[in-house]
């Protein structure tokens, strides 16, 4: 390591599976930067201490993954607009004794859909399955693209209602119909894009959603990456196009890279190189 080399990290628990070090190293190589980027396992009750140790070590920034995004939000002294709305942080900047929190997840999802998968979200009808942190992290970015309708569904409908109430003012400002329907009633409508933001893909459990929700011409997007989930299999059986969340992972990393370095890296070659990992 040289004196000029900047230091970064990704923090999570677990963290051994993280592709972030490979992604950021590839970005840095592409644009000619020398950085050091490592994966750090933080004990579940030691996140704040982990961050302060990194600051003491002159680390410039950190990505934050599960289960620490809410804690990162609470720890930050300043927040970007996306982080404030999501009430979650996945990217930290350590700057002038301040901890600045950003959320790049929604930006990453939208860029993957629009730039890599060629789906223009404007005036489209979107179904978002899930009402946890993953859904909260991306919903505002989708509203910004002005789909005609964004429908929320979840096994626990009350959780979807909470998100709807929280996001309703933003939906109105973007002229988007934001509605909630029970997961069992999803087949009665046509959707251009169906996004699985639940954790079902991690342990490959069924969502309880009818096959009829998927159609030829729809895109089914699974936020989990690197595995053939039940959601993907369901969608393919009905002729839908499908994608996993690898592109979202790389695109949200590219936005974090831009926040830290003010350079926008190319992403398509990195996405291609990671397929199969």
UniProtKB/TrEMBL annotation:
Q: What is its EC number?
A: 1.1.1.25
Record keyword Oxidoreductase present: yes
Q: Which InterPro entries match?
A: Aminoacid_DH-like_N_sf, NAD(P)-bd_dom_sf, SDH_C, Shikimate_DH, Shikimate_DH-bd_N, Shikimate_DH_fam, Shikm_DH/Glu-tRNA_Rdtase
Q: Where is the active site?
A: 69
- A single Gene Ontology CC term: cytosol
Task: Note one Pfam family from the annotation.
Answer: Shikimate_DH
Query: Which positions bind shikimate?
Result: 18-20, 65, 90, 105, 225, 252
What's one GO MF term for it? shikimate 3-dehydrogenase (NADP+) activity
Q: Which catalytic reaction applies to this protein?
A: shikimate + NADP(+) = 3-dehydroshikimate + NADPH + H(+)
Biological or metabolic pathway of the protein: Metabolic intermediate biosynthesis; chorismate biosynthesis; chorismate from D-erythrose 4-phosphate and phosphoenolpyruvate: step 4/7
The record's Gene Ontology biological-process terms are:
amino acid biosynthetic process; aromatic amino acid family biosynthetic process; chorismate biosynthetic process; shikimate metabolic process
- Where the record annotates domain SDH C-terminal, the positions are 245-274
UniProt domain Shikimate dehydrogenase substrate binding N-terminal: residue ranges: 10-92
Tell me the ranges covered by the Quinate/shikimate 5-dehydrogenase/glutamyl-tRNA reductase domain, including all copies.
116-200
Its keywords, alphabetically, are: Amino-acid biosynthesis, Aromatic amino acid biosynthesis, NADP, Oxidoreductase
Which residues hold NADP(+)?
130-134, 154-159, 223, 245
The family classification in the record reads: Belongs to the shikimate dehydrogenase family.
NCBIfam families tied to this protein: aroE, PRK00258.1-2
Query: What role does this protein play?
Result: Involved in the biosynthesis of the chorismate, which leads to the biosynthesis of aromatic amino acids. Catalyzes the reversible NADPH linked reduction of 3-dehydroshikimate (DHSA) to yield shikimate (SA).
Record's subunit section: Homodimer.
State the name under which the record lists this protein.
Shikimate dehydrogenase (NADP(+))
Task: Print the organism lineage.
Answer: Bacteria, Pseudomonadati, Pseudomonadota, Betaproteobacteria, Nitrosomonadales
């Amino acid at each position: 390591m040289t004196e000029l080399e900047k230091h970064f990290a990704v923090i999570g628990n677990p963290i051994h599976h993280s592709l972030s070090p490979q992604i950021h190293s590839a970005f840095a190589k592409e644009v000619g930067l020398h950085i050091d980027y490592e994966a750090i396992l933080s004990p579940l009750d030691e996140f704040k201490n982990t961050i302060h140790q990194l600051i003491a070590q002159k680390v410039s920034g950190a990505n934050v993954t599960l289960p620490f995004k809410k804690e990162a939000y609470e720890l930050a002294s300043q927040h970007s607009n996306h982080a404030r709305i999501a009430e979650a942080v996945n990217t930290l900047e350590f700057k002038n004794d301040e901890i600045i929190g950003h959320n790049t997840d929604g930006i990453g999802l939208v860029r993957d859909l629009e730039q890599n998968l060629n789906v223009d979200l404007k005036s489209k009808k979107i179904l978002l399955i899930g009402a946890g942190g993953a859904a909260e992290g991306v919903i505002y970015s989708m509203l910004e693209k002005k789909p005609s309708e964004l429908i929320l569904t979840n096994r626990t409908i009350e959780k979807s209602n909470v998100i709807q109430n929280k996001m309703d003012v933003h939906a109105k400002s973007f002229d988007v119909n934001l509605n909630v329907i029970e997961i069992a009633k999803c087949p009665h409508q046509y959707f251009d894009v169906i996004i699985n933001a639940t954790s079902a893909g991690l342990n490959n459990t069924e969502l309880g959603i009818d096959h009829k929700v998927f159609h030829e011409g729809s895109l089914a997007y699974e936020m989990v990456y690197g595995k053939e989930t039940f959601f993907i299999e369901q969608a393919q059986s009905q002729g839908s196009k499908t994608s996993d969340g690898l592109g979202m992972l790389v695109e949200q990393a590219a936005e974090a890279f831009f926040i830290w370095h003010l350079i926008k890296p190319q992403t398509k070659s990195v996405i291609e190189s990671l397929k199969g990992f």
